[in-house]
Amino acid sequence: MIETERLLLRELTLGDVEAISAIIGDAETMKYYPRSFSRADAMEWVNRNLERYRRDGFSLYAVMLKTNNEVIGDCGLIRQDVEGESMIEVAYHFRRDCWGRGFATEPAKACMAYAFQHLAASEVVSLIRPENMPSRRVAERNGMKAERQVIFHDMPHLLYARRRENYGEA
Predict the structure, then answer these.
(1) What is the tens place of the pLDDT at every residue in 14-33?
(2) The domain spanning residue 159 has which CATH number?
């Protein structure tokens, strides 16, 4: 569905449960979440995204290396209710052995482009825990700015945003 220089993004399938479980089941990867997730949670995660494809036409996608089609993470767009306002969030989760190589920045940028060009989104946000410096750097590299703190899933998050009118800028 979406292609970048090194990665392919496609809809998640039930065949991706093991790969997703390896990511969201890792306590270090999920340290900014209330907990890591079980294999059953990973099945629910994939099913929730399958429902979002039907309902919204988009969601998180499996991120695969072009070199070998290995699923190394997920990235995509999710419609979120943030303090009573509907927003489109770009979100991502990657295997720990893939951190620090631009594998979050590259597809997040492509997903934002998709939101602006194909969904006519006026803005794209990322909801990031304040202490999650790696994700904050991904958002900033993609031209997003921290606008305010919000409460999301009962926890403080920084709301990073990029607006359509600023999309052409670095």
Answers:
(1) 999 999 999 999 999 999 99
(2) 3.40.630.30
